[in-house]
SRPBCC family protein (Luteolibacter yonseiensis), 332 residues
Amino acid sequence: MNETYPTVMENTAPSLAERELAISRHIAAPRAKVYQAWTDPKLLVQWFTPPPYLTVHAELDVRPGGSNYIVMRGPDGVDVPNRGIYLEVVENERLVLTDAYTKAWEPSEKPFITICLTFEDEDGGTRYTARVLHWTAADRETHEKMGFHEGWGIATDQLAALAMKA
Amino acid sequence: MNETYPTVMENTAPSLAERELAISRHIAAPRAKVYQAWTDPKLLVQWFTPPPYLTVHAELDVRPGGSNYIVMRGPDGVDVPNRGIYLEVVENERLVLTDAYTKAWEPSEKPFITICLTFEDEDGGTRYTARVLHWTAADRETHEKMGFHEGWGIATDQLAALAMKA
């Protein structure tokens, strides 16, 4: 076995920076409260969507390979179901989920995002960071034009308010 | 929360059958030997590619979220590196890997396959099954035309011979 093999033909994906959208926020609540807002379906439905959208149903099987099923309702009354899976679960610290699979390990119709959440202690509260990774730079751009920053910004305000209250 | 929500607009992916290629074989060797051929890089390089292709390098970090890096060399001397990740690891029983991520959790350029391997006791040996799942029916067809059945057939012969010898 030759250890000095050339790496010819390596498919290099565009840099992560070109495929990432992110939001980071200090939340004046303990990590456990912020994590719980993501993992308890009764809490998630309260903050997950910016109005006039509603989250009307959530099933969250929070373990590696576990599925989630979240139904959002638009102002026109049309329900949009979303299915995904948890890839990594470290309680109160880290949560990774994706829509690339609908359950372990059935590929979805279109892998669009992988969400990497971290919950860190900071100034008596929590540094909450959501990195949203896409497979292509085009998908990142689409997501940004769909209103990522405003939508996730409002949702994160709602998440913070709930965590501080809970 | 209304539990009788309609599931309007659900994106239904094509059935798994349309997106799956599979191979199943009885191997006259214990499960542990067959599993080891997939997880020990010194063994994997011996069986992984049908001639005249060679597997010239393998790094396998076999744990959920761990990466693999496998370099194949064509008869023209050109090296083709492949990067992937393990999604599920149950020693001697089950192994799930994909090229949708190059490491935890960086999306690859093009998610193409998820490989679900099972190793079961059967007639004093092992029932070895590899299900290869694709995101689209078109990718499954491409993979089949690339020679999936012949290629995986020969590789599986080599895997079986190695497991029986080891």
Chain B touches chain A through 46 residues (CB under 8 Å). Residues 21-165 of chain B form a domain with the Alpha-D-Glucose-1,6-Bisphosphate; Chain A, domain 4 fold (CATH 3.30.530.20). The helical segments of chain B are 31-39, 41-47, 137-145, 148-165. The radius of gyration of chain B is 17 Å.
